Amino acid sequence: xxxxxxxxxxxxxxxxxxxxxxxxxxxxxxxxxxxxxxxxxxxxxxxxxxxxxxxxxxxxxxxxxxxxxxxxxxxxxxxxxxxxxxxxxxxxxxxxxxxxxxxxxxxxxxxxxxxxxxxxxxxxxxxxxxxxxxxxxxxxxxxxxxxxxxxxxxxxxxxxxxxxxxxxxxxxxxxxxxxxx
Length: 181
Prior knowledge:
By secondary structure, this protein is an alpha+beta fold. Helices cover 35% and strands 19% of the residues. It has helices at 11-70, 117-120; strands at 86-90, 97-98, 108-110, 131-137, 147-156, 170-177. Strands 1, 2, 3, 4, 5 and 6 form a six-stranded antiparallel β-sheet that branches.
């Protein structure tokens, strides 16, 4: 038996290695796209949750304003001396209300617009451990007519490296007419 080829040519083996390498690079690119998509979905989910809390908070503020118009005791903070102040909502019960202090007055949670965001963090939204919710009376409110222009501010209390604070605090404006007493 005579051997015709004395050298082994490994072209097929090299082609296979190159194909595996190209497939690996493509997988890395696709994994990067998948991770980016998951991050975007998580951010959208947080924004959705914050929007829902803000809208429910504005609805609760409207209910409190209506209750204030028929109640003998004030259940809604006055506009005077409270412009810029933010109040914690209590929406755990069937009857929403603002938190009160020991003396029976409305408890001021923070002054969000004047850099008091850190003080707002203690006002957790109902059923949440990492989202705060406050109602702030704005300067557009009118004492004489009793029209309260306010905003429900909802934000994250804790920032982690996973991007939980990639989103800004959510502000939902509300307009309510209520008695000033």
